[in-house]
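seq as requested:
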Amino acid sequence: MDHNTPTPEITQDSKNLALITWIATLFFGFIPGLIIYLVKKDDAYLFDQAKESLNWSITAILAYLAAMLLSLIVIGVFLMPIIGICHLIFCIMGVIESSKGKTFRVPFAIRLIK
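struct tokens:
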């Protein structure tokens, strides 16, 4: 089964869990996406959105680490709030698209988990 293609009929439960995953990602980082990714492999839509949430969380963590290193030369201090705003915006976009049952792709996410 290919997890990249959306199923023709996405249940309301799948939409709700995907929505909750994106909301929880905003507050708890990679943990909600990882849990859903490992537990809900039978639901293609939810698996896909959990994977996207997880990829974005990993990308954000790497960006924060880079910004912390760059704080030594002051640039990172300005990057931290920008990364935080991007995290907020992308999680909200994920919530909105999940509520509609659409697949959401974060434009700047590094796709480490395929």
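The helical segments are 12-28, 30-39, 44-70, 75-100.
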